[in-house]
Design goal:
The chain is an all-alpha fold. 41% of the residues lie in helices and 2% in strands. It has two domains: 85 residues, Cytochrome c-like domain (Cytochrome Bc1 Complex, Chain D, domain 2), CATH 1.10.760; 93 residues, Cytochrome c-like domain (Cytochrome Bc1 Complex, Chain D, domain 2, Orthogonal Bundle), CATH 1.10.760.
């Protein structure tokens, strides 16, 4: 019997082993895809579930900026988890929890919230003196007066927006806009602001005179609640339609 040379025999064995491991259709060790409910890393979960509305890096999206330390501090982890899990009825924010019809487990929602706080939060942010949700009743008439005092310089006296100089703002009373944002969403924007779009919060340290209200004091819980009530009063039953449906 003719014996194969040692080199040829070794090469044959090596090729045989590789061939067995790389059988067509057989996944290589470690190449198996995770089930959706097994994903635990924040970047993947955020990109697949949140970035379309809140922006790739938590800013400059259609929805409220999440990469805002003031907002993260104001809302708090418990509220962020609740909103992420249950969504906001009447708005474009859907529920993400499996128990509410979404696709994420409770653990994945915890990972998303913890990732936002660790990536975009700041330990130097002082706790906001205003509560996330208010138990007060809003006064529409007072709300208009407070809006004039704190908000009109940027948004115009009628909240229709301004286009003067570099300060350009859209309408806050457009029915189509109000149909997409909840009262709590309005409150969050007023209190925490939208830094990536040049909007300071009601308790921000304002260094830009162009954005400074006509008073240096901070807004109170009642004043924020009144402004929200006044803005919300501009909602219509048929946003975006110039006519009322027939009964």
């Amino acid at each position: 019997m003719r014996l194969l040379p040692t080199f040829s025999l070794s090469l044959f064995c090596a090729l045989g082993l590789v061939g067995c491991r790389a059988v067509p259709g057989k996944p290589l060790p470690g190449s198996e895809a995770k089930r959706p409910d097994q994903v635990r890393d924040f970047p993947t979960l955020y990109k697949e579930n949140c970035s379309a509305c809140h922006g790739d890096q938590g800013r400059m999206g259609a929805a409220i900026s999440l990469a805002n330390p003031a907002y993260l501090s104001f809302a708090g982890a418990a509220n962020l988890q609740r909103v992420t899990a249950n969504g906001v009825p009447g708005t474009m924010m859907p529920p993400f929890s499996k128990t509410a019809g979404g696709m994420l487990t409770d653990r994945q929602i915890e990972v998303v919230v913890a990732g936002m706080v660790s990536s975009w939060g700041s330990p130097n942010i002082q706790p906001n003196p205003l509560p996330y949700a208010s138990n007060l009743r809003g006064d529409i008439t007072q709300g208009q007066k407070i809006f004039l005092l704190f908000c009109s310089r940027c948004h115009g006296a009628d909240a229709e927006g301004t286009a003067a100089g570099t300060m350009r703002t859209g309408s806050l009373v457009e029915p189509a806009y109000l149909s997409l944002i909840s009262d709590q969403g309005l409150r969050s924007l007023i209190v925490a602001g939208q830094p990536d779009q040049g909007m300071p919060g009601s308790t921000s340290d304002l260094s830009d005179d162009a954005a400074r209200p006509m008073t240096d004091r901070e807004m109170t819980d009642q004043e924020v609640t009144d402004v929200v009530a006044w803005l919300a009063a501009h909602r219509t039953a048929t946003p975006g339609q110039p006519y009322q449906p027939h009964p």
